[in-house]
Amino acid sequence: MRDYLRTHEGEARILIVLAVLIAFLAFASPSFFTAGNFASLMNNNAVNVIWAVGLLVVLIAGGIDISFAVAASVTQYLTALVLLAIGGGDWILGLLFAGAFGIAIGCVNAVLIAGFRITSIIVTIATFNALFGLLMFMTSGRSIYDLPDWWTDRIAAASLGEGASLMLPVAAMAAAMAATWFLITRTTTGRQIYAFGDNPEGARRAGVATVKIQFIAYGWMGLMAGVGGLMQVNLAQEVVPNALIGRELDVLAAIVLGGARLGGGRGSVFGCFLGVMLVAVVQNGLNLLGVSPYAFKMVIGLTILGAISLSNVDLGALLAGGSRRRGHASSH
Amino acid sequence: MTSPSPASPIPASEAIRFEHVSVRFGGVQALDDVSFSVGRGEVHCLAGENGSGKSTLIKVVAGVYQAAPGARTDYFGESVTSLTPKLARARGVAVIWQDLALFPEMSVAENIAFDGLVGAPRLVNYRAIRATARTALAKLGVTLDLAARLRSLPISGRQLVAIARALAADAKLIFMDEPTASLTQAETDHLLAVVRTLSASGVAVVFVSHRLAEVLEVSSRVTVLRDGRLVGVFNAADMTQSRLTELMTGRRFDQAVTARDVGEKPIVVQTAGLTRRGEYEGVDLTVRAGEIVGLIGLIGAGRTELAHTLFGMARADAGVIRLSGSPVAFASNREAIRAGVAYVSEDRLALGLVQPQSIADNTVITILKAITGAGGLISEARKSAAVTKGINEFAIKIGRPDDAVSTLSGGNQQRVVLAKWLATSPRLLILDCPTVGVDVGARDGIYRIVRGLADRGIAILMISDEVSEVYFHSDRVLHMAGGRIVAEFDPRRIAIADLERAVYA
Amino acid sequence: MQALTERMGRALGRDVPGLVGLFVVILVVFGLTTPHFLSAANFGSIAFQLPDLGLLTLAMLAPIMSNGINLAIIATANLSGLTLAWILNMNGGPQAGVFAFVVGVVAALAVGGASGAAMGATIAYFGAHPILASLAMMIFLRGLGEFLTRGGDISGFPDFLREIGHGSILGIPAPMVVFIVAAVVWHVLLARTRHGFSVAMIGSNPRASEYSGLAVKRSLTLVYALSGVMCALAGIIMLTRFNSVRVGHGDALLLVTVLACFLGGVDPFGGFGRVAPVFVSLLILQTLSSGLNLLGASQHLSTAVWGLFLIAVMVARSSTLRTLAAGFRRSETGQASR
After folding, report:
1. Which of C70, C74, C251, C322 has the most CB within a 10 Å radius?
2. CA of A187 to nearest chain B CA: how many angstroms apart?
3. A260-278 exposure pattern, b = at least 16 Cβ within 10 A, e = fewer
4. How far A9 CA sits from the closest chain C CA (Å)?
């Protein structure tokens, strides 16, 4: 436990905050600690988590991707068009197409970032505008409601009793988390992603194929954008071209809350999940406590502001009475 | 020039033997017919100024650069041509660059075993990683927490990790680039002990540095390069830092003691019982107008922390600082600057200058108020006058004032730093290792400037970890160790060897 | 002559000539292909649309120069607009007088400045990452706005506001006049004052700046506070142009302002940026948009073209392309590459 605290400080912090929050809500609202509420929390946030683990890989590699929510909209639309054109398709074809379109968009970002050495934030803001503009222009903003049945049918992945069920997107979320965890902690490729984000020059000198690493990171983000988009359609029952825009910043905030670092080299799948859930539980709690929905965002913003201010205070140093030598002695 | 003393015969079994190595970049002859050999298990020094070709030579050995045809390149008794970095690594060559090229967010174990993570994608075997790391550390005779993140280790610990990483990759010949630059004396001693262990087990170590006094004692031979040519190979036993300097620069430096009596000039700064817990204790020092006081101490002696306090960037827990007689307690370095204190940091790259910005802007950054004209706007006329004055006064060799300051050489950058502080008309100038990263040949110019400033009546506190720097260029020498000032010396009354003994004892 | 161009280059930024060239090319292409493009009406409409985006881009520019970013610009503009709207409504809505308007403007600017200062302080004193701090501030301010308006919009303002939003001064639309004045002030602030000097230095290296005696934390707080004031000005102009205020109004402009900064050669790693090239890049973006509009394309196509345009410019400026070109030149002169 102590080791965990030491090596996973970011996660440990948010876990404590989340636990306190959950304990409080369980006490304050009788409907919080119910299967139904838990299921709706998970169902409503599964897609955000899928995107979050994708973005996590990019953040670990030292980059950023603002374009993923738009990329998800584009893959939704393209996948819907292709599937309707070939007569409906099924989940396998859907995953295949959504994944492929997503990866393709990720690779476009990677070409510009790794190939032309343009900063990732500039590239993805540009592709954000380009993709969103083209999508809205080509579709004239029209939504697609007439979707194949397999896509919009609700599928319960697990029943929690009391009529509450975890739906398919939650299963997809679990799969995305497991796959991302496997990639970044269990494969040499994943460790190279960490190393590249941590010290690009050191990784290059050690023989890491840095261009390839960036393609994998942005490609993974693209894949998750596609899969998340596919699942979001299953929840929403429709494809609306501008429905997802704006989600990118919320997801980004949640991941950084979960201990990932803007600048690379740090972050975990579990922390990511906790970050998304913290924001979700705050909102859920406000709802159950009867707070006006119009106040939700305000409280969430304040929560994040408080959390980031606190997270930059070194808890260890505070407890140890402040270690001075570290203060200004070493730097690099 | 002194004739090179004949080096002892080359050990029968050699790690590498390079002969007739020439490398050319465009119009620049980086290496010209250089020979270089290291015995198995030998500890060797490779010395030379910036631009002498020592980095190029390492890169040839490491397979990064190719030598021109006609060179002999043997690794462990085998002739190898058309080398690549990968091949060199496979032959047992490892280079530890000064920046160490490690991964601060990753664990100690992963850093040590990192080279095993590169290559064809596969699964990570953490148990094997830990075993590799443990074995490598055992060879060094040190124990480190394998799960700890690298960033939690001090620089010396990270250096051990870098060495362990080289051993884990089965290195038989390790180059260490400026390994002692940021180590304390105790850490350096530990490093040297580790190097002895390595040497005993048959691993050759090459120290690459221009400051070698500390590592000479464990080395057997020194190879000196200058302007891309081999000056000679010498026995380490009869080498001293001053002779090495001569060999590296090809010039004899007029190393005369410049100390003078300043007499009863007014006291500019005086501290009494100055203490900051864990850093320095009971420091009493006095610097008079026109006096250069050398403060010699190794890293970790508390010298930089003391300078930070005088400069208002760290508060003392106890004691007083008097500036021209009146007690001061600065809340920030801005107050210290206003009171006439200037501080030249030891870390010019990160703290001394804003590297990407222009020479002009770096020169006036300290005097923004003075160059502000009507309506609160910066006056271009006043600014360029100030810049021109600084550039002329310190004879800074520049292209245009608008060029980035990072385009200048170390010596000229240091002149820009001095110019920006002189613009504030300080009464106390604190110099923290003023010639770090300045070529040996360019140091004299800096020393002359410093002496000139003292002659103008500025009180100068010169902090250094180089005995010759304070011995030859200050009026009085204070020796700081373990956070205390332990002795005071008059350079005119003590031999440099005695001062060296006192400091390095 | 050369000295003059050099001085111009130094004062305005090296990217200006290239961007002006691009602007001229765009004018010529649209002028030749699009009827009514070179008309007073078209330029009038460009001049009416440009100020919103322009003022917000100025608000984005300064934080980026300090190696930060302000993602809360739209939310700050909206909340400041709400402040003015609220004060006008308290004083009779359509019957409100000039005095109430002035008080409202001052309050709006104060709210913008205070929001910015709070965000800047979080960044400067707590060391929070600017992306995260401004993101959290954006969510908070938008939430506060939603809470206060219950998601609706506020309208019903005195008629004289229309004069500001739609009137002209010497033939130039009033919002454009405000924008030009703001741009000039911003240029002077960033290029000629101690504060601007400090922001550039801090943007490049905050620690070296601190060691040189700059008040780093105060300057950073001030950058965001002034950025907030500029947002408030944008919010006020938006109120007068649309005669209503609503939370979320102008959200789509957020990333476009970043795009305009980068197009204008502002360094994404801080330390370097000029108002003049950003001004020209804003003209380019708005002209592209109105030209496409005249061709019958929607605003969305303009957005896409903006994004593609930024990619093209960045690729043209990229080091990879330069390395390729340099390698080509070197092989021509017969020198080995290092």
Report:
1. C70
2. 4
3. bbbebbbbbbbbbbbbbbb
4. 17
CB contact under 8 Å between B106 and A198, yes or no, is yes
Give A300's contacts in chain C (Cβ within 8 Å).
Answer: 139-140, 143
What pLDDT does residue A158 have?
85
* Alpha helix ranges (H) inside chain C: 2-12, 16-33, 40-65, 73-90, 98-126, 130-149, 160-166, 174-192, 194-204, 206-211, 216-242, 253-263, 275-294, 299-317, 319-333
User: Going by C-beta distance under 8 Å and a sequence separation of 6 or more, which residues neighbour residue A134?
Assistant: C300, C301, C304
For residue A6, the chain B residues in CB contact (below 8 A) are 148
User: What is the model's pTM?
Assistant: 0.86
Please name the member of C132, C151, C318 whose beta carbon is closest to the beta carbon of A116.
C318
The partner residue sitting opposite A129, judged by closest CB among C150, C303, C318, is C303
Chain B CB contacts of A186 under 8 Å are 123-124
Structure tokens at A182: 């496997």
At A149-180, the pLDDT tens digits run 999 888 888 888 777 889 999 999 999 999 99
| Residue count of chain A | 332
Chain A nearest C-alpha distance from C330 (Å): 20
Cβ-defined contact of B155 to A324 (cutoff 8 Å): no
Tell me the C-alpha distance between B105 and A266, whole Å: 6
C-alpha C134/C-alpha C224 separation (Å) is: 10
**How many Å apart are CA C302 and CA C275, to the nearest integer?**
23
Cα(B269)–Cα(C82) distance, rounded to whole angstroms?
57
Report the complex ipTM: 0.87
Q: Check if A206 contacts B (Cβ < 8 Å).
A: yes
**Residue A46 distance to chain C (closest CA, Å):** 21
Alpha-carbon span A315 to C336, nearest angstrom: 55
- Chain C neighbours among B 473-502 (CB < 8 Å)? none
Which of C269, C304, C321 lies nearest to residue A130, judging by beta carbons? C304
CB C162 within 8 A of CB C174: no
Domains and CATH numbers, chain A: 35-308 (1.10.3470)
Give yes or no for a contact between B189 and B15, defined as CB atoms under 8 angstroms apart: no
Residue C15, classed as helix, strand or coil, is coil
Q: Is B115 helix (H, G, I), strand (E, B) or coil?
A: helix
The answer to whether C126 faces chain A, any CB pair under 8 Å, is: yes
**Nearest-angstrom CA–CA distance, B482 and B316:** 16
User: What's the DSSP call for residue B218?
Assistant: T
C129, C143, C256 member nearest A262 (Cβ): C129
Instruction: Give the start-to-end residue ranges of the domains of chain C.
Output: 52-276
Q: How far apart are CA C143 and CA C150, in angstroms?
A: 10
Contact assignment for C207 to B351 by CB distance below 8 Å = yes
Q: In the prediction, which pLDDT does B36 show? A: 93
Chain C residues inside the 8 Å CB shell of B366: 212-213
Per DSSP, the three-state class of A157 is strand
* Integer Cα distance of B330 and B328 in angstroms: 6
State which residue of chain A sits closest to B105, comparing Cα positions.
A265
CA–CA distance, A310 with C269 (Å, rounded to integer): 25
Q: Name the strand (E) or helix (H) holding B208.
A: strand B204-209
For B:190-249, CB contacts with A below 8 A are none
Domains within chain B, CATH numbers bracketed: 15-248 (3.40.50.300), 267-504 (3.40.50.300)
User: How confident is the model over B327-374, as pLDDT tens digits?
Assistant: 999 999 999 999 999 999 988 888 999 999 999 999 999 999 999 988
Neighbours of chain A (3+ CB pairs under 8 A): B, C
Over the stretch C183-232, which tens digit does the pLDDT of each residue have? 999 999 999 999 999 999 999 999 999 999 999 999 999 999 999 999 99
